[in-house]
Amino acid sequence: xxxxxxxxxxxxxxxxxxxxxxxxxxxxxxxxxxxxxxxxxxxxxxxxxxxxxxxxxxxxxxxxxxxxxxxxxxxxxxxxxxxxxxxxxxxxxxxxxxxxxxxxxxxxxxxxxxxxxxxxxxxxxxxxxxxxxxxxxxxxxxxxxxxxxxxxxxxxxxxxxxxxxxxxxxxxxxxxxxxxxxxxxxx
Length: 187
Known about the structure:
Layout: H1 2-6, H2 8-23, H3 25-59, H4 62-69, H5 74-86, H6 95-104, H7 109-121, H8 124-134, H9 136-163, H10 168-185
Helix pairs in contact: 2-3, 5-7, 6-7, 7-9, 8-9
């Protein structure tokens, strides 16, 4: 029964798709085409992201992440998070494993909220297109309002997650890292 609960969402989607295939075959064909397109996109993007995350785990020491993006990093940490979020191009789902890795290494929830928000709404290529079509004044106002909202949301997230922590996923990653270090030391 726990296996059924674990896979409840995919099972429900399978039944919905089967219903579509029976009653609306054209919609089912379009749905399958879109699903296949997203699957191919993710299959091409996610492996390099996971490789990058593995390299980040190995090459960047935890104390550096804590210094640059941790709770004590202040405005410098928020600036680094903003810069890291505005530079890349690519879908937002690429940023989530990066954020999880940075949080496990000691980045603050405030800075990671800014990072995710900047990735979603403040990317430099997006700002350039926005400036071209909507004008510089609109872009500056939207950028400023979005940044203020991100700072407020980051502040609230930091307070809420410090008060009600759910760090089981972080602790499991730390336990795994400790076990790996012990295994390396015994070699």
